[in-house]
Amino acid sequence: MYLEIVTPDEKIFEGEVETATFPGTHGSFQIMNNHAPLISTLGLGDIRYTEEKKKEELLTVNGGVVEVLHNKVIVLAEKIVD
């Protein structure tokens, strides 16, 4: 599936991933290939994603929105926490 992570200032990541886990405001959730359509708000926490045959990557966000549609995941993050 295709994942795109953007903030108001820059595009953080864009590419194919195997899985992605998000810090939803009501608990974390994982998206896999061919997931059902979904829109969710994000809270403070970690976005974890695994590129094909690579190690897991980690970004900490402080809120935002995620949309899943037609095997494409778009994350609009308010802020990436260092």
Task: Summarize the SSE layout with pairings.
Blueprint lengths: L1 E5 L4 E14 L2 E6 L5 E14 L4 E14 L2 E6 L2 E2 L1
Parallel strand pairs: 1-6
Antiparallel strand pairs: 1-2, 2-3, 2-4, 4-5, 5-6, 5-7
Helix/strand/pairing category: mainly beta
Low-confidence stretches: none
Number of helices: 0
Largest sheet: 5 strands, mixed, barrel
Give the amount of beta strand, in percent.
Answer: over 45%
CATH architecture label: Sandwich
Terminal-residue CA separation: 26 Å
Task: Provide the spatial order of strands within the biggest beta sheet.
Answer: 1-2-4-5-6
The helix/strand series, from N terminus to C terminus, equals: EEEEEEE
Considering the protein shown, what is the CATH homologous superfamily?
Answer: F0F1 ATP synthase delta/epsilon subunit, N-terminal
Quaternary structure annotation: single chain
Give the gist of this structure.
Helix content is 0%, strand content 74%.
Describe this structure in words.
- With about 80 residues, this protein is an all-beta fold.
- The chain is built from no helices and 7 strands.
- The chain has a single domain (about 1-80), classed as ATP Synthase, domain 1.
- The protein has strands spanning about 1-5, 10-25, 25-30, 40-50, 55-70, 70-75, 80.
- It has a 5-stranded mixed barrel with strand order 1-2-4-5-6.
- It is globular, with a radius of gyration of 11 Å.
- The model has no long low-confidence stretch (mean pLDDT about 95).
Relevant terms:
82 residues, mainly beta, ATP Synthase, domain 1, 0% helix
